[in-house]
């Protein structure tokens, strides 16, 4: 969990999840928008329906293995009622579009040979990264913290879920059909 110390991002948590041998291999950014304070679409006529809380709107930016994005919004269901349903707008690069594209390291090596440093870290970025790592390392040196291990093929340790639940959030992870379609994720 990271917090940025300025007026624009005050109180906005940034959660980073990383690991090896997780359920899926990929890189994505989920931007979870704030909940609306009042759900004007609550269905008062349905006793068994819990329409008091809308799921958050989520913008997902896919970085690897395919580029793309999806935007999940709460939309009104067709008809006379005021029920809502999640609506997903989705775009992913197709295999045909990326067929002859260089892999990430191929592009970096070519940029290096051509003297293009735009995709490389600058010294001030590296120094700031080490400042953050040093803060974490010094905090670990002062406390006896157990490492939260997890089984391969899972979404990580329980501590990762507990961190968000403590703040009233959940991870916005759903198995990605891109992996399922290629047989890389169990049904």
TrEMBL record:
GO cellular component, one term: cytosol
Protein name stated in the entry: Glucose-6-phosphate dehydrogenase
Keyword presence, NADP: yes
Gene3D superfamilies: Dihydrodipicolinate Reductase, domain 2
Pathway: Carbohydrate degradation
SUPFAM superfamilies, per database record: Glyceraldehyde-3-phosphate dehydrogenase-like, C-terminal domain (SSF55347)
Listed Pfam families: G6PD_C
Superkingdom assignment: Bacteria
InterPro entries: G6P_DH (IPR001282), G6P_DH_C (IPR022675)
Keyword Oxidoreductase found: yes
Source species: Enterococcus faecalis
Keywords: Carbohydrate metabolism, NADP, Oxidoreductase
Domain Glucose-6-phosphate dehydrogenase C-terminal: residue ranges: 1-172
GO annotation, biological process: glucose metabolic process; pentose-phosphate shunt, oxidative branch
Single GO molecular function: NADP binding
């Amino acid at each position: 969990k990271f917090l940025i110390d300025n007026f624009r991002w005050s109180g906005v948590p940034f959660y980073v999840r990383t690991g090896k041998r997780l359920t899926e291999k990929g890189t994505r950014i989920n931007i979870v928008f704030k909940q609306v304070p009042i759900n004007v679409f609550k269905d008062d006529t349905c006793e068994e329906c819990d329409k008091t809380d809308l799921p958050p709107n989520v913008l997902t930016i896919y970085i690897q293995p395919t580029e793309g994005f999806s935007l999940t919004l709460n939309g009104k269901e067709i008809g006379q009622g005021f029920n809502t349903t999640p609506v997903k707008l989705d775009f992913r690069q197709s295999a045909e579009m990326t067929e002859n594209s260089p892999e990430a390291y191929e592009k970096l090596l070519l940029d290096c040979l051509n003297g293009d440093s735009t995709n490389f870290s600058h010294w001030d970025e590296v120094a700031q990264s080490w400042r953050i790592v040093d803060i974490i390392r010094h905090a670990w040196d002062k406390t006896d913290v157990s490492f939260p291990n997890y089984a391969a093929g899972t979404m990580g340790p329980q501590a990762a879920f507990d961190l968000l639940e403590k703040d009233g959030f959940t991870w916005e992870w759903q198995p990605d059909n891109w992996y399922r379609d290629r047989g890389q994720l169990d049904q």
